[in-house]
Amino acid sequence: MKTAAAVALALILAGCASPAYVPKFAAPATIRAPQPIMGNSGKFMSPFTEDGTVAAWVEKGKSASAGSSLGGFVGAQAGQKMAEQIPFIGGMLGQSLGESAGRAIALKMVGGEEFIRANSDMSFNTVQELAVYMYAKNSSHKDYAEALKLTQEIYPELKTAYFPAIAAASH
């Protein structure tokens, strides 16, 4: 009797330790990609061109993620100093400063917003549309991981929107 109770308790605890919900993504080819805006009039520029190659700004910005890491470090240091004065708020400000500094550095390394717009032939109104389109149409591209990382540095909101957008599009 004690053994059965111990086994039952172990199974219950093991169930609690595992994630209750792990999102499943559909294969990229099975997801209906949102229609891009042809041209650069949208808010979010695609790192891939209509013909499936990486945009010139992605080529130019291959080292941008190193700059963003530096920006994140500077922001974290500022946040730490603020946190000494204002608990909790300082850490949030530091993260925000880090993202802003990282974005500014990444933008500079790819040639600026004007260069991105001038060298993009597709854009999107929402970061979620950009995420789903990239996954559905470009995820098999050899430079996908690098293009995604750079795009997330340019558009920090893509970092948190990417997986939820794909999970939602997978259903």
Overall form: globular
Radius of gyration, whole Å: 21 Å
Individual helix count: 8
The residue fraction in helices comes out at 55-70%
State which percent range the strand residues make up.
under 5%
- Runs with pLDDT <50, length 5+? 3-18, 89-94
> What is the overall pLDDT average?
77
Order of SSEs: HEEHHHHEHHH
- Trace the largest sheet across and list its strands: 1-3-2
Largest sheet: 3 strands, antiparallel
Count the beta strands. Answer: 3
Structural class: mainly alpha
Termini Cα gap: 44 Å
Report on the structure:
With 171 residues, the protein is mainly α. The chain has a domain of 119 residues. The protein contains eight helices and three strands. A three-stranded antiparallel sheet has the order 1-3-2. Helix 4 packs across helix 5 and helix 6 packs across helix 8. The longest helix is centred in the middle third of the chain and has 22 residues. The N terminus is likely disordered.
Fill in the keyword field for this structure.
globular; mainly alpha; three-stranded antiparallel beta sheet; 171 residues; disordered N terminus
Report a brief summary of the structure.
The chain has 171 residues and is mainly alpha-helical. The chain contains eight helices and three strands; from the N terminus they run αββααααβααα.
